[in-house]
Design goal:
Belongs to the TRAFAC class TrmE-Era-EngA-EngB-Septin-like GTPase superfamily. EngB GTPase family. Helix 1 crosses helix 6. The longest helix is centred in the middle third of the chain and has 17 residues. This protein has one domain: 3-Layer(aba) Sandwich (Rossmann fold). The chain is of the alpha/beta class and 217 residues long. The radius of gyration is 16 Å and the shape is globular. Strands 1-3-4-2-5-6-7 form a seven-stranded mixed β-sheet, sandwiched between helices. The chain has six helices and seven strands, in the order H-E-E-H-E-E-H-E-H-E-H-E-H.
Length: 217
């Protein structure tokens, strides 16, 4: 039997689950919002970043991971987060919330400025271990997602897809959209060969994602 390309990440074992729980149960503090590369904090620890289309549920996922309701600002206005937001995760990690992309309301000059900053960050941050690209389970990979994945390929940054809002779909719909995401990922050399399915509302996949982040070296 041929192994499925881009299988779903397995549930963590007890050790990995507890390591992830402890890391996210510790201090999580907002450091700063960055609008230009010179403003980045010292590259003195491993960091992971979260990227996603506006309205993909990124703020909700970060809040669910950290167990804090208002750490990342969820807004009814997509694209409100216009900075690279840095959070400390204990003493050993930075958790980085990248600006939402793919929204029509923002002025072109603003979008170009964010894209330039994003590109500079992804290509110039040596301590970045993994990018987590969030894909809405209901919609699959869209053109704007392809653009960020291609940028990650060019930047040689390993990225892992995290599918959000899985509770909003029936099982057949989920499988269909999963197939679409797998087909899209096959074209990207920087894609990590596992997908994480999550629901911030139900808590599905949160322990798995915590364990993955805690296990990075």
């Amino acid at each position: 039997m041929t192994a499925l390309p881009f299988p779903l990440a397995e549930e963590p074992d007890d050790f990995a689950r507890e390591r992830g729980r402890l890391m996210f149960a510790g201090p999580v503090d907002f450091v700063k919002g960055v609008v230009a590369m010179p403003g980045l904090p010292p590259a003195d620890r491993l960091e992971v970043c979260f990227a996603g289309r506006s309205n993909v549920g990124k703020s909700s996922l970060i809040n669910a991971l950290t167990g804090r309701k208002n750490l990342a600002r969820a807004s009814n206005t997509p694209g409100r987060t216009q900075e690279i937001n840095y959070f400390t995760l204990g003493e050993s990690r930075y958790l980085v919330d990248l600006p939402g992309y793919g929204f029509a309301e923002a002025p072109v000059a603003t979008v170009q400025k964010w894209q330039t900053l994003l590109k500079a960050y992804l290509q110039g941050r040596q301590t970045l271990r993994r990018a987590f690209v969030l894909i809405d389970s209901r919609h699959g990979v869209k053109t704007v997602d392809e653009e960020i994945m291609t940028l990650l390929d060019k930047s040689a940054v390993t990225f892992q897809v995290v599918m959000t809002k899985m509770d909003k779909l029936s099982r057949p719909e989920r499988e269909k959209n999963l197939d679409q995401v797998r087909a899209a990922l096959a074209k990207h050399p920087a894609a990590y060969p596992e997908i994480v399915m999550t629901s911030s509302e139900k808590g599905d996949g949160i322990a798995t994602l915590r364990a993955i982040i805690a296990g990075l070296e």
